[in-house]
Amino acid sequence: MPEPNELSLKKGSDKLKKFTSIIDSITEWAGKIISFLIVPLMLMLAYDIIIRKIDTASIYVYDLSLWLFSLLFLTGISWVLLNGDHISIEVFSEKYPARMKIFLNLITLVIFLLPLCLIQISGGFEDFMFALTTKQQSVYSPWRVVVWPMKAMLPAGFALLLLQTISETVKNIYALIDSPKDASTDASADNSTVISEGSDPA
Q: For residue 140, how many other CB atoms are within 10 A of its CB?
């Protein structure tokens, strides 16, 4: 019969795994929904190119296309992290055992990505509040639209990335716990067994 401490640890583990599953689902659906914005973005840019040839440039296409692209990018970075599709330089890490790779992932997530998310959320929220309270307008087109909706995308996008980073951190911790402690030792043991079996008896 399991000890009370083991039961509480198992319950805590199940709750964490459920928590990461919820975050993964949010990121997955957000990425899928936002990905459809690529269609109006491309149509808008095509319209702007055509109208420039015929008459003059539109006063609103630049700002709207910038908003859509920002939304696509800031939501997409969380989706890319979830699916492991980011650029990875494996010149050195490919030689490491699986346990070391997981440890390096944890270092990257905790030391680099988590602080980056917190800094961007803090700074982005300050910019958003400034734009909201001052009714700041865009200076890039004659449309002069208020920019606080676009400013809100930065802290919102990095908040989603922060949640996904936490989810990936938890998953990597569990992977590190469940992974064999030294795969290279097992491999060397297998090699020594093969050598000893193939050697002639003295």
A: 12
Residue range 12-66, pLDDT digits in tens = 577 888 889 999 999 999 999 999 999 999 998 888 888 888 877 677 888 888 8
DSSP-derived secondary structure for 52-96: HHHS---SSHHHHHHHHHHHHHHHHHHHHHHHT-S----TTGGGS
DSSP β-bridge partners for residue 146: 137
Question: How far is Cα 136 from Cα 157, in angstroms, rounded to an integer?
Answer: 21
Query: Each residue of 72-82: pLDDT tens digit?
Result: 999 999 999 99
User: In whole angstroms, how far apart are CA 15 and each of 11, 18, 21, 36, 171?
Assistant: 6, 5, 10, 33, 13
